[in-house]
């Protein structure tokens, strides 16, 4: 993901091509899909985290880095699980 994002950023400036990209129906659908995903993951993160500073910081990372940040967040919490813990412990507060 990181390679694709960086190489695409070096080839093409999103802000210069926004008018063209915004006119493509699939691009608009992809953005709706992305922000719906970010919204749900952010709700889970707000439930799970205690610090408001951490909540705001992670939300900014989610919006700016997309799947890279959400994947990192989920992986961190997966690696924090103890042997024998599962989905219930992953989703619940600690």
UniProtKB/TrEMBL annotation:
Q: Answer whether the UniProt record assigns the keyword Transmembrane helix to this protein.
A: yes
Which parts pass through the membrane?
29-47, 59-79
One Pfam family hit: DUF1475
Q: Which UniProt keywords apply?
A: Membrane, Transmembrane, Transmembrane helix
Listed InterPro entries: DUF1475
Protein name per UniProt: DUF1475 domain-containing protein
Taxonomic classification: Bacteria, Pseudomonadati, Bacteroidota, Sphingobacteriia, Sphingobacteriales
